[in-house]
Structure formats: structure tokens, C-alpha cells
Amino acid sequence: MTVSSAAAPQPASPAAPLLFTPLKLRSLELPNRVVVSPMCTYSATDGVANEFHLVHLGQYALGGAGLILAEATAVSPEGRITPEDLGLWDDRQIVPLGHITDFVHQHGGHIGVQLAHAGRKASTYAPWRGKGAVPAELGGWQVIGPDENSFHDLFPTPAMMGADELRGVVDAFSAAARRAQVAGFDAVEVHAAHGYLLHQFLSPLANTRTDDYGGSFENRTRLLLEVVRAVRHVWPAHLPLFVRLSATDWAEGGWDLEQTVQLSKLLKYEGVDVLDISSGGLTAAQQIEVGPGYQVPFAAAVSRAETEISVMAVGLIETGAQAEAILQAGDADLIALGRPFLRDPHWAQRAARELGLRPVSIDQYARAGW
């Protein structure tokens, strides 16, 4: 099927805004810097994608996003946030995801997937179904973590991971990345943010271990580096690898921006191409100072650390002008948006018009009169 690409707006003037300038990541060339941030929808059965995921993710290809990142997709059953999470721990989950990547590619888009393990924040209810731990009789399971401390009194109590579980997590990420390739994804993102397993190991507030995986910065970053190394080993050399980090726990004594910058320099040598900089999610005691673009300074600090890795900013970025200003300032190379895309799947086309471009729609939507 041949269609017009919705991702390449035509300039109304010779100088195109940076937001709509292509970016090449290894052999993958994005037509613009607009990224749909991974957003959990808690709508799968046994980790298998369905028509909802096809429509939900496919609409963003029709709307002109440069890259779509599919939601946190569990690398193992016990790694799910909720019983309804997407998964890539079983071969039977490949084909349904392949239907989605095929659709996106047929309509000129690019799509990646975020690989995740929830650790001590697993086995919980979807937000609209309840709060806290899901009991075993309703499909809950024993969760694992760096130690035996739970995220919150309402959350499950984790079992402290031993050597077998640590090795198993690394192997699970690697196997999920292989399945992602078969499913046709253009990129993978390792989720090490928002208080999930890999972030739990990074933060002293969630990791009280005294072995080689706890204590010092070197030890707390060990599991993430092992996971990234394993994923990069199996992920095709011509395709990009993303890592999402929470730059700060927003809590005293936790993971912070200085450590994030230090870690970003290590990730450069592991073949990471993009750092997706977010924040928070590790502790219920966090004190987040929310405002427009509130996480952009974290992305800017990593961007200026001279890691030679592209940086993606996210967090209360609402307009094309705001996104363009971030890029013009050199604070990031890519702009990720979540809620704005939920409100308007054609956000990229609207932003193009806002920045003085003539958006190009697929043929079926041409009558919209962009």
C-alpha cells in the first residue's frame, strides 16, 4: 500500500524549524524530532496486544509523529506493572505487535518499544481499577526487588533478588529485545526510570544491598549496565538503543542529577544512542516542583555533558513553540510528549502549522485542509 507520509511537513519559508528537521540515529532517519512518549494503557490480556493497541498506536503514524514509542512492555510475567500490561516474554506476543509495526510502517512512520520490569512496583491495579497490590486470587504474584522494602504500604512486599534472579532479569531483557526485532520495531528503549526495577537498583533509597549490586555508585549501576550491554549485543547494530532515566528522585539522599550525568558517560560506551530524561517515581516521599517544561533542565544538563549521545526531553511540553525553543537552546535533540498526544493525535501537524509550515497529511486526510 502506498500512501503519502504524514511526517514530512513542507516549509513555508527556506529555514525549517529544528522540530521538523530530520535526525539520523544509526541507520534510522527520523523525519522530525517529535516523539510519542511511551504511555501505559493497561489493556492487554496475557501480555498480548489487541485491536486497541493497533488503533491507539497507529493513529500517531497518521498524525505525523517522527517516532512512536510503545508503552512499557514487560520482559517477564512478574515484571508487569499490572496484570493487563503488554509483554514480550513469549513468542506468541510477537505477531500481534508485528501487526502494529506493519501498520505504522505502511503509513510512513517509525515505532520503537520500551522494555521494562516493574520490580517492587509490579502486581498492582491499573489506575481506574483500584490502588495498591493485586491479591493472588485476582491474578497478583510475588514481586521482586533489590531488597525487601516495598514502595508503599499499599504495595506488595518484594522478595530480595539473588544471583539467579539477577541473571534472569538480564536474560529476560535480552530475549525481549530479540523478539522486538522479529516484531519489526525500529528502536528499543530500556526503562530505567519512574521507580521500576532498574531505577530501584540505581537509587540508595530503594537499594540497601551490601553485595556487588548495592552501596557504591559502581555497584548500584551494575545491573543497568549489564542489561544495556546484553540488549545492545542482540539488538541490530544498525538500529538505535534508547535508555530512559529518572534524573532525580526529588528526595533527599536519593538518585540525583550528578549521578545521572556520571551514568550517561558510562552509557556512551555501551552503545546507547538516546537518553530519554524524565524524573521521579522512586519514592512516595518525592517532592516534585511541577511547571511547564519542568524536566527540561535535567535533559539540558545531560545534553551539555558532552556524552555524544542524543538527548530527549519530556514533561509538560505543550506547544510547538515551546518544543522548538528547547531545541534551539540546545537543551535536547528530541521532544517527547505524552498527554498532548492523548488529547490530539495530530499534535505534530498542528505544531507544524504553528511554526509556519504546511503540514502534509496522508491522502485520506487531505481534505482536512492543513
TrEMBL record:
It comes from Deinococcus radiodurans (strain ATCC 13939 / DSM 20539 / JCM 16871 / CCUG 27074 / LMG 4051 / NBRC 15346 / NCIMB 9279 / VKM B-1422 / R1). One of its GO terms (molecular function) is NADPH dehydrogenase activity. The keyword Oxidoreductase applies. The lineage of its organism: Bacteria, Thermotogati, Deinococcota, Deinococci, Deinococcales. Keywords: Flavoprotein, FMN, NADP, Oxidoreductase. Its cofactor is FMN. It comes from the Bacteria. This is NADH-dependent flavin oxidoreductase, putative. Residues 19-355 form the NADH:flavin oxidoreductase/NADH oxidase N-terminal domain. PANTHER family: NADPH DEHYDROGENASE C23G7.10C-RELATED.
